[in-house]
Amino acid sequence: MLKGGYTGKILRVNLSSNKIDIEDTNEEWAENFIGGRGYGTRLLIDEIDPKIDPLSEENKLIIATGPIGSTFAPSSGRVMVITKGALNGAIACSNAGGHFAAELKRAGFDLIIIEGKAEKPVYLWIYKGRAELRDASKLMGKSTRETDKLLRKLTHPEVSTMEIGPAAEKLSLIANITVEGYRAAGRTGVGAVMGSKNLKAIAVYGDGTIRVAEPDAFKKAVYESRSILSKDPFSGGGGAKYGTSSLVGLINKVGGFPTLNAHDAYFEKAKNITGKVLTEKYLIKAEACDSCQISCGRVTEIKEGKYKGMKGAGPEFETIWAFGANCGIDDMESIIVANYICNEYGLDTISAGATIACAMDLFEAGYIPEQDIGFPLRFGDSEAMVRAVQMMAEQSTDFGKLLAKGSYRLAEHYGHPEFSMTVKKQEFPAYDPRAIKGIGLEYATSNRGACHVRGYTVGPEVMGGLDKNTYEGKAKLTIKLQDFTAALDSTGICLFTTYGLKAEHIAKLFSKATGFECDAREFVKKGERIWNLERIFNIKAGFTKEDDRLPERMEKEPIKSGASKGEITDLSKMLPEYYKLRGWDEYGIPTGEKLKELGLEGML
Question: How far is Cα 315 from Cα 342, in angstroms, rounded to an integer?
Answer without folding.
Answer: 10
